[in-house]
Amino acid sequence: MKKSNYNRIDKLLELPQEVCSNIPKISIIGFDEIIIENFKGILEYEEFFVRINTHIGIININGYNLSLENMTDDDIKVKGKIESLEIERTVD
Fold it and tell me: Which domain holds residue 81?
């Protein structure tokens, strides 16, 4: 099946794009929690800085008292006092 056929089926079934692809979904809860679905790996982790690799780019999280929680193969939760979030696009 071609990729366009998958897109038609996904739309017909009303499946969210992040479920059928590698596109990350970022959920921000206040200034204390970020959940990233569809991540590839952790590039750097410090108490004040976290870099997470995804299929479309790198997510940089700045803050303090940052910790990684509830990590699975596909999603990760970052908790702490979040100051900023930056996305470095690596795919066009």
Answer: 22-89
